[in-house]
Amino acid sequence: MIVVQEMKNWEDALVHCRTHYTDLISITSETDQYAVNSMITDIQTPTFWTGLRFMNGIWFWVNHQQTLPSMPSCPIRPFHCGAQNVQAGVWENRDCSETMNFICYQNISIHGNQDLHGTKKN
């Protein structure tokens, strides 16, 4: 995981992560959350972008992970992007045009066909 201390809106954060790393972070387990919590002091904004997005009536992770946090079932526009509050550790649906820090991840191949997130590569 890499904390990016740049101020970007959600879309620009996504492009940055996909260009320089693998993707915006998805936090789908206690292990993921623990790793994020260990990096909190590097985040310079009250909230940070994650790979959580609301579109076509559903919340989803941009990297297709399955476990989702509890989010509003029908958020009003433009609050369709998922962020996590640094101090409270709670999920927030935010205006996608807001700028804040974000966390990217980078897959590192192990055993030839899996990455560190446990995702099988095609």
From TrEMBL:
Q: Which SUPFAM superfamilies match?
A: C-type lectin-like
**Which SMART domains does the annotation name?**
CLECT
InterPro entries named among the record's database cross-references: C-type_lectin-like, C-type_lectin-like/link_sf, C-type_lectin_CS, CTDL_fold
Record keywords: Mitochondrion included?
no
Against CDD domains, the record matches this protein to: CLECT
What keywords would UniProt list here?
A: Disulfide bond
- Indicate the segments forming the C-type lectin domain, all copies: 1-105
- Signal peptide region: none
The record's annotation in PANTHER family points to: C-TYPE LECTIN DOMAIN FAMILY 20 MEMBER A-RELATED (PTHR45784), C-TYPE MANNOSE RECEPTOR 2-RELATED (PTHR45784:SF8)
Protein name, entry field: C-type lectin domain-containing protein
**Lineage of the organism:** Eukaryota, Metazoa, Chordata, Craniata, Vertebrata
